[in-house]
Each structure stands twice: as structure tokens, then as C-alpha cells.
Automatic annotation (TrEMBL):
Pfam families: CT_A_B. The keyword Thylakoid does not apply. InterPro entries: CT_A_B, Cyclophilin-like_dom_sf, PxpC. It comes from the Bacteria. Residues 27-290 form the Carboxyltransferase domain. It comes from Streptomyces armeniacus. This is Allophanate hydrolase subunit 2 family protein. Keywords: ATP-binding, Hydrolase, Nucleotide-binding. PANTHER family: 5-OXOPROLINASE SUBUNIT C. GO terms for molecular function: ATP binding; hydrolase activity.
Length: 290
């Protein structure tokens, strides 16, 4: 068995292994999962000459710290945060060489919610259904990191010693206002005309109750036109589901693949990375998709 290359010194609030997920298994009841901010995950891999499929660590709000058990190269992308190596400042968004024994720390996010720590060669967790991603809903993939965990890395890709040099990482900043385009349906007819108007004009904010499964929102309730519930039906990534309290939930990567609450609309996938970085209290505005 390959020798572990990393030891978790501080796991943080929630740090998981993520890649591009396991699409194509919804018929088995398995969500896609994968990095919530996929562009930030891909950027980390691109800076290290990894393929986009290589696994990274996704941190949540408080960051994490790892000790190199062998020489390696790492990079931190996603939510901006203080980066240190053995307590000394290191660059965010640029590859950093770590000698054996050095501790890399991605501190609390200063803006946004989720940072990504990539390593040359990628995190070599055991694949499940073709992916190394942690799925919090189904329990597939490696468990969320704990202090003292040890992780393996794959062999580095590309030319040894040659890593991308950039002055600034080309990445979209976390939103001060989250604007989400929405395509109506498939159950928009389950809501009153007033509810459809409220969806695109209401004062919504990100709730602290959200997670990798869904972005929960605080704000005005959406009134239904019918009583009762639907039979369970398929749920898409980005579905805006409305539970009985009337407050919308935008489904993210670990969402259930079926559900019985009506879906008033769907947010296109390319708008969801910004949702992954929206902190509690961030204003949210739905607009008709063009």
C-alpha cells in the first residue's frame, strides 16, 4: 500500500475530499456529489498540472491544516483565506513547495465559504462508483476529515518541478449579492401567481441552515395553489424545491435524487458555484433565465 503523504493537523468545521463527482447513478439513488465550487476545484488542479478529475480537499468556513509527510506541492484556491507554511505567510492561488514535516494551513475564509487545497498528483482516496468524492447524503466516499487522519497522494502529473506561475489566480470572487437565474417549472403550476411574482421580487437571504445538500433561504413564503403533496419524482441539480414552510431550497451537489415537494423552478448549473460561496446573510435575488 502506498505510504501516506499527508497528516491532518486541524480538520476544521467540515473538510471533505472532492473531485468532479459520480454522475450517471441517479437511477441507483446516488447523487452526483463533487466539488460545490467546481471552477475553484479545477483551477487548483490546473495550477498543479493535474487533470480536473484529481481530488482536492474542500474546506468550509474555518479552513484546515495538514502536515506533509514527504516533499510535495500544494495550492489553495476558492474562498480567499490566509495561507501559512509553518506559521509563515504563503501565497493564496499559487503553488507552494512543502518539505517533509512542514505544516500548510488554510485559515478561515476572509470572504466566501469554501476553499480548495490541491496537491500535485491529487488526493488518492479509494474510488467509489468511479469517484473519490465525499457524499454527505448517501455516505459514499471517504468520511469527512478528522484530526490525525492520514491521506495518500497520487503521482504528480506533467514535468516534475514545473508548475504554473501566475500573478493572480483567475477566479470569480464570492458574491456580495447572489443573483440566480431560474427556469420556471416543472411544478410552477402548483403555486399561485402571487408566489411566482414573489420568487423574483422577494427579499431572500442565505440561511445558516444550508449545507452541501441544499442552499436554504430565509424570506417570504411561496403560496401553493394546491393542498397535499406530490408523489416522489426525480430531482435535478439546481432544483428550487419548496417545502411546506414555503421557503425555497436550491439543491446542490449532494441533493436527493427524488423528492415529493414541488419544484417551482431550476437554477442552471453554471450559476451554482457562486451559491457554494454565499455566506449566511448574503442577499439572494432570483431572475428569469434568459
Amino acid at each position: 500500500m502506498p505510504t501516506p503523504a499527508l497528516e491532518v493537523v486541524r480538520a476544521g468545521a467540515l473538510t471533505t475530499v472532492q473531485d468532479l463527482g459520480r454522475p450517471g447513478h441517479a437511477h441507483l439513488g446516488v447523487p452526483r456529489s463533487g466539488a460545490l465550487d467546481e471552477p475553484a476545484h479545477r483551477l487548483a488542479n490546473r495550477l498543479l498540472h493535474n487533470p480536473g478529475t484529481a481530488a482536492t480537499l474542500e474546506t468550509t468556513l474555518t479552513g484546515c491544516a495538514v502536515r506533509a509527510l514527504a516533499p510535495l506541492v500544494a495550492v489553495v484556491t476558492g474562498a480567499p483565506c490566509p495561507v501559512t507554511v509553518d506559521g509563515r505567510p504563503a501565497p493564496w492561488g499559487r503553488p507552494v513547495r512543502l518539505p517533509a514535516g512542514a505544516v500548510l494551513e488554510a485559515g478561515p475564509a476572509t470572504y466566501g465559504l469554501r476553499s480548495y487545497i490541491g496537491f500535485a498528483g491529487g488526493v488518492d482516496a479509494e474510488p467509489v462508483l468511479g469517484s473519490r468524492a465525499t457524499d454527505l447524503l448517501s455516505g459514499l466516499g471517504p468520511a469527512p476529515l478528522r484530526d490525525g487522519d492520514r491521506l495518500r497522494l497520487g503521482a504528480p502529473y506533467g514535468v516534475r518541478g514545473a508548475y504554473a506561475h501566475v500573478e493572480a489566480a483567475p477566479w470569480q470572487a464570492p458574491p456580495r449579492e447572489l443573483v440566480l437565474p431560474v427556469v420556471p417549472g416543472p411544478r410552477a403550476d402548483w403555486f399561485t401567481p402571487a408566489a411566482l411574482h414573489t420568487l423574483t421580487t422577494g427579499d431572500y437571504r442565505v440561511s445558516p441552515a444550508g449545507n452541501r445538500i441544499g442552499l436554504r433561504l430565509d424570506g417570504p413564503a411561496l403560496e401553493r395553489a394546491y393542498d397535499g403533496e406530490l408523489p416522489s419524482e426525480g430531482m435535478a441539480l439546481g432544483a428550487v424545491q419548496v417545502p411546506p414552510d414555503g421557503r425555497p431550497v436550491v439543491f446542490l451537489a449532494d441533493h436527493p435524487v427524488t423528492g415529493g415537494y414541488p419544484v417551482i423552478g431550476v437554477v442552471p448549473e453554471d450559476a451554482l458555484p457562486a451559491a457554494a460561496q454565499a455566506t449566511p446573510g448574503t442577499p439572494v435575488r432570483f431572475v428569469p433565465a434568459s
